[in-house]
Structures are given as structure tokens and as C-alpha cells.
């Protein structure tokens, strides 16, 4: 027999007792016509008050499971009704349990989504910080003697338009020219410091390291 204590019940204590008594009758612990346990014994067995025991027995009477013979006691009236009552009770409990599980699952899913949203916000914030930090960290590039732009001014090169980078300094030997103007000319050995995205850095490298055009190709 599956004890009522093994099931999460959503009814009052006297209804729980009534269900367990109905289960015993349905399983044949008592035959139809048998006299069943007195209210005082039920109260002692289930550790409840006599009033709670009385209410439990009244439920069984109302359901037609037992009958009361005044001056004699309480007797089993129907095993079938006991079985129906027991099954109906557990169906109700099962529905209530399923509903609670669904509610808990929804709450868990909501918490998971909230945590996921927080993680996503944190990831975006970190990515933005990393991007901004990377953008503001100067890159450096040394001008080779074979560079096509030696002797040209920074203004003539249209650095921003071509690469999106901004030149912030030029190191030439022991000197450093901060924020060089558009008239500063590129010289071999210069180290150009600039800021920009990774794409801008790649464009700067491609621009200053591009091969010198073949004169023959210019005449084609």
C-alpha cells in the first residue's frame, strides 16, 4: 500500500486521513459490513484531535463509503466508492503537483533568462571596453627607406580618408613630434604612432608598405 505520507497532499489533515482510510478499504483491509476503527483509535493512530478524527469519518460517511449505526459503530458500506474516492483524490493531487511543477519550471526559466540577459549585458560591456581600449592604444609603424611616401607631407597622404587612423606622434631619432601638423613630411626611419581600429592598423600597414608601381605599367 502506498502511504499517504509518501504523497505531497494539498488537502487538510482530516481529508488526508479519510483518503488513507478509503485506501485501506479499497485494498481489502476491511470487508463490506466490517466494523472499522473507532474515532478515538483514529485520533491516536494519526496523532490528531478527536474532532479531526470525527471530520475524517464524516467525509467517508458523506461519500457513502461507510455508514454509522447509532449505538453500534461505523461499518464499511462500499469498497467501490472507497476506490473511486481514493483515485479521485490522487488525480486531484497529481493535477496540483503538475501545476506546481509547471509554475516552478516557468520561474526557473525566467531566472535563467534573467541571468542570461545579465551575462549578455556583461559580455557586451566588456567587448565595448576592450574595443575602446584597443582603439585608444597607439600603434607604431616604422617607415622603411623604400616607402613610396618619403618626402610627402602628412596632409598630402589623406591618412584619415584612406585608413580611418589618426597620427598622434612621429618619432625621429631622439625627437618626438606630438600631434604633427599636415605639413610634417615623412622621412625614412620615422616611427609613426597612430590610433585606430584593428582594420585601420591593417590599412596603414598596407598603405605604407605597398610596392612601388612599375613605371612600365603606368605607360600601358
From TrEMBL:
Q: What is this protein called?
A: GntR family transcriptional regulator
Please name the PROSITE patterns in this protein's record. Answer: HTH_GNTR, RCK_C
Presence of keyword Disulfide bond: no
Quote the InterPro entries the UniProt record gives.
Answer: Bact_HTH_transcr_reg, RCK_C, RCK_C_sf, Tscrpt_reg_HTH_GntR, WH-like_DNA-bd_sf, WH_DNA-bd_sf
* Classification via Gene3D superfamilies: Regulator of K+ conductance, C-terminal domain, Winged helix-like DNA-binding domain superfamily/Winged helix DNA-binding domain
HTH gntR-type domain ranges (all copies) = 11-79
Q: Which GO terms describe its biological process?
A: negative regulation of DNA-templated transcription; potassium ion transport
The protein's matches in PANTHER family, at most eight in alphabetical order, are given as: MANNOSYL-D-GLYCERATE TRANSPORT/METABOLISM SYSTEM REPRESSOR MNGR-RELATED (PTHR44846), MANNOSYL-D-GLYCERATE TRANSPORT_METABOLISM SYSTEM REPRESSOR MNGR-RELATED (PTHR44846:SF1)
User: What start and end residues bound the annotated signal peptide?
Assistant: none
Q: Name one GO molecular function term.
A: DNA binding
Q: Which UniProt keywords apply?
A: DNA-binding, Transcription, Transcription regulation
- Species whose genome carries this gene: Mogibacterium pumilum
Spell out the Pfam families in the cross-references. Answer: GntR, TrkA_C
Please state every residue range assigned to the domain named RCK C-terminal: 126-210
Asked if the keyword Transmembrane belongs to this entry, the reply reads no
Amino acid at each position: 500500500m502506498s502511504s499517504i505520507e509518501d504523497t505531497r497532499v494539498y488537502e487538510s489533515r482530516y481529508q488526508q486521513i479519510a483518503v488513507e482510510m478509503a485506501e485501506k478499504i479499497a485494498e481489502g483491509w476491511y470487508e463490506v459490513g466490517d466494523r472499522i476503527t473507532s474515532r478515538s483509535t483514529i485520533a491516536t493512530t494519526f496523532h490528531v484531535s478527536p474532532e479531526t478524527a470525527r471530520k475524517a469519518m464524516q467525509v467517508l460517511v458523506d461519500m457513502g463509503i461507510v455508514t454509522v449505526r447509532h449505538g453500534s459503530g461505523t461499518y464499511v458500506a462500499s469498497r467501490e466508492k472507497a476506490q473511486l474516492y481514493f483515485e479521485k483524490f490522487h488525480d486531484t493531487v497529481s493535477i496540483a503537483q503538475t501545476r506546481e511543477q509547471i509554475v516552478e519550471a516557468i520561474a526557473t526559466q525566467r531566472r535563467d533568462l534573467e541571468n542570461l540577459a545579465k551575462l549578455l549585458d556583461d559580455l557586451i560591456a566588456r567587448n565595448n571596453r576592450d574595443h575602446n581600449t584597443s582603439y585608444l592604444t597607439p600603434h607604431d609603424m616604422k617607415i622603411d627607406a623604400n616607402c613610396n611616401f618619403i618626402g610627402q607631407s602628412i596632409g598630402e597622404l589623406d591618412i584619415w580618408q584612406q585608413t580611418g587612423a589618426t597620427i598622434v606622434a612621429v618619432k625621429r631619432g631622439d625627437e618626438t613630434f606630438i600631434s604633427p601638423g599636415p605639413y610634417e613630411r615623412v622621412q625614412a626611419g620615422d616611427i609613426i604612432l597612430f590610433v585606430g581600429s584593428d582594420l585601420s592598423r591593417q590599412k596603414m600597414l598596407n598603405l605604407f608598405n605597398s610596392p612601388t608601381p612599375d613605371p612600365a605599367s603606368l605607360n600601358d
